[in-house]
Amino acid sequence: MSYLILKRSFRRLISSSSSIHFQNPSFKSQCHHFCSSHLKNTIQASGYHSFWKRCRGSVLFSANYLKISSFGPSERFFGSGAAVELSSSDGLTVEGIIAKQWPIVEESVSDWKSHASSIAQSIHLIKKRLKWKKLEVRLAILSSQLEKPDLWDDPIHAGKINREHGSLVNKVKAIKVYEQELFEHIDMIKLAREENDPNMESESMKALASMRKSIKEKELEALLAGEHDSCSCFIEVQAGAGGTESMDWASMVMQMYKMWAQHRGYRVTVVDVMPGEMAGIKRATIKVDGEYAFGYAKAEVGVHRLVRISPFDSGKRRHTSFAAVAVIPILDDGATTHFQINESDLRVERMRAGGAGGQHVNTTESAVRITHIPTGISASCQNERSQHQNKASAMSVLQSRLDQLEIVRHAQANAQHTQSLNDISWGNQIRSYVLHPYRMVKDLRTNYEVSDPDSVLEGDLDAFIFSFLSASMDKDEDDL
Amino acid sequence: MKLSFAPSSFASIITPIFTQSKIHTRPISYSSISTRPTSLKPKTPLFLRPPTYSTTVSELQKWHNWAQTLASSVGSTFLESDNGPTSENLKREVVWLLEDVLENPKSNLIDNCGFNDGGDFVKLRVELGDLYVLWKQRVEERRPFQYVVGCEHWRDLVLSVEEGVLIPRPETEKIVDLVSDIIEGNEMLKEGLWADLGTGSGALAIGIGRVLGSNGRVIASDLSDIAVRVASFNVQRYNLQDKIVIRQGSWFEPLKEAEGELAGLVSNPPYIPSGHISGLQAEVAKYEPRLALDGGEDGMGDLLQLCTGAASMLRPGGYFAFETNGEDQCKFLLNHMETKTKGVFYDLKIVSDFAGIQRFVTGFKVK
């Protein structure tokens, strides 16, 4: 059985190298011979990926053979430079499948056209989210820069180019592998039908169905394809005008993000809190550590509005209050847009220092504020146990705030990103939380709404985040 | 020099656990003046004690609520009476106290989100009952938080402290920054012999010991035997016993053999005028060692002694940095050095702390 599959999946591969046949039941040596002699020119011509998966399932390969996986897609797809559109043996492409408009039915139904149609649409969506055409153009530019002989004269620049190239190559590679796999399965099903092999057909059908599921999940990941999306971030909440009621609202919003972040498995640290006189907070900054923290949290930037009967109003009147949320990515050390801070441009001040200080005072409060004088941007921290650590923490917030300035400056010089930044501009009202007279949370950008504000305020935000991310990524229909 | 210690009536309610078998100072390149053998051993800070006690999450939550309520009851009364801590400061200390006594402080348990539900058990480094006593001492008796937990976070260090030893102040951190800047590119200073006089917990000695080059050494002295023990403990905890030697004695007395050899000299000597002591915030006046605070009638007694000593102890090109009470003392000292010890020092400077108070006097001995 396994031999049969191997043979069939090879048939197309080896049509150009007729000298190889699988008559000999000594399967392993055949493969060995085959692989070593035709690895680069033959296997790479077509679906080796899928082939290897099958082989591994049926035959025990030695480590030698498995190493072959390290060759492959990148060379295959980029060796020649030009991107060739992939297709099935009878010329079916992803666009072709979509054009056929095969109806998509439930996953449980064994209908290869339905599966293929769903997968093709997922591929299409992911490409769109990755801004595929721009990505290919950018990749071509980077590739040509990498070939310049004097590139490494400027190692920092070269490193940047190299990193960006690597990350784009990986994205393209991942999609190409999906396309490859899709056509491989389609070919197998057709072949199985020709040769009347129901086992093979059902196996490929299963593979197609599982692929359909896994690529559906990739759609979400593709939402977070922005340059800084994988970064950790700071989330800042600031109370709007309106005294204690709005400061209480600000602390509810902060609490919502803390719980959201913890549910997602991020590490949350409070960096800076300015409490309100009676209750709540005037403003606060938390650090959210973990992969894609910024990618998700950036969807929350804007003004959040609360309507309720204020517990701070003895007259039990309905109040509307606002809290503004800002999200700042914490760039990796290797990031391209770091703001260079001059030590001499900084002013460090002890906050809330009363009296003579020094030996006169024993306090555990050692908050500092650091101001970057040229820009007027400042940051403070009081939650660490030593002044030194407060200073270090404030410094990292300041660095990120200045980095964000740099990102905006960079983006303005680089028109392609401007759109996405406009989407997350600060100051727009994005969501309304109504606790009275009815109960509802509604996102004003996507119109997504739920009728259970409590769960949202307890950090159940993912649905809002995903609906916003997909709406903002997918709105330009033809922008592949 | 007066030798007086804080009343020990609020000394730890918990039997100290001695993990230190023996405090010893290893001699380094120069001959070591014998340090008086001590029978007492330093107390172990809470965060270094074994987590041998356990309680339920809900019991701990009860404690937490009680502690927060007690903190809230303070409002700004301490602040108004003697510039003491506010509710806000105390509430933050509750979190830090839990951080020190919990076995796994990084779990979400003590996050501001509150506690997880359930009757799960948590491991503690003190008994729950003692936790109540400790927090009462902090709020009702005004025992300094650092003595309650037995440590102070200073720069990137966590230093053991206890009654009888001055709790290092945030302002003093800056001396390490100054030293760190000054030794940059100056091999003589970087690899030389430094002294920290009146070292207390050993903060400056350890801070400087960690920025010096591989051949740099520090001698730290203190008159108080508790300070000598605690500083030695801290030096060993940072594994710097080959670099830093702690000696007991008054100012320059324990390092006479280093006369004219010091590459650097730092000190945070007592500088508060005697008459001001009783009016200080309760945490300081009632608990911290007078020996480390009281600088005589005008607070200048020890600083002037240090200036005189610096002239003979520093080698040419050597650097000094002293902490003072503020602007008046800085100016007085500067004037004193420019006139009384004219021609001995150069590049004399007054450096402010982060609160903008003129805090430090620095300079070099002429080459």
UniProtKB/TrEMBL annotation, chain A:
<comment type="similarity">
    <text>Belongs to the prokaryotic/mitochondrial release factor family.</text>
</comment>
<feature type="domain" description="Prokaryotic-type class I peptide chain release factors">
    <location>
        <begin position="352"/>
        <end position="368"/>
    </location>
</feature>
<dbReference type="Pfam" id="PF00472">
    <property type="entry name" value="RF-1"/>
</dbReference>
<dbReference type="InterPro" id="IPR045853">
    <property type="entry name" value="Pep_chain_release_fac_I_sf"/>
</dbReference>
<dbReference type="GO" id="GO:0016149">
    <property type="term" value="F:translation release factor activity, codon specific"/>
</dbReference>
<dbReference type="InterPro" id="IPR005139">
    <property type="entry name" value="PCRF"/>
</dbReference>
<dbReference type="InterPro" id="IPR004374">
    <property type="entry name" value="PrfB"/>
</dbReference>
<keyword id="KW-0648">Protein biosynthesis</keyword>
<dbReference type="GO" id="GO:0005737">
    <property type="term" value="C:cytoplasm"/>
</dbReference>
<dbReference type="InterPro" id="IPR000352">
    <property type="entry name" value="Pep_chain_release_fac_I"/>
</dbReference>
<dbReference type="Pfam" id="PF03462">
    <property type="entry name" value="PCRF"/>
</dbReference>
<protein>
    <recommendedName>
        <fullName>Prokaryotic-type class I peptide chain release factors domain-containing protein</fullName>
    </recommendedName>
</protein>
TrEMBL record, chain B:
<dbReference type="GO" id="GO:0008276">
    <property type="term" value="F:protein methyltransferase activity"/>
</dbReference>
<dbReference type="InterPro" id="IPR052663">
    <property type="entry name" value="RF_glutamine_MTase_cyano"/>
</dbReference>
<dbReference type="InterPro" id="IPR029063">
    <property type="entry name" value="SAM-dependent_MTases_sf"/>
</dbReference>
<dbReference type="InterPro" id="IPR002052">
    <property type="entry name" value="DNA_methylase_N6_adenine_CS"/>
</dbReference>
<keyword id="KW-0949">S-adenosyl-L-methionine</keyword>
<dbReference type="InterPro" id="IPR004556">
    <property type="entry name" value="HemK-like"/>
</dbReference>
<dbReference type="GO" id="GO:0032259">
    <property type="term" value="P:methylation"/>
</dbReference>
<dbReference type="Pfam" id="PF06325">
    <property type="entry name" value="PrmA"/>
</dbReference>
<protein>
    <recommendedName>
        <fullName>Methyltransferase small domain-containing protein</fullName>
    </recommendedName>
</protein>
<keyword id="KW-0489">Methyltransferase</keyword>
<keyword id="KW-0808">Transferase</keyword>
<dbReference type="GO" id="GO:0003676">
    <property type="term" value="F:nucleic acid binding"/>
</dbReference>
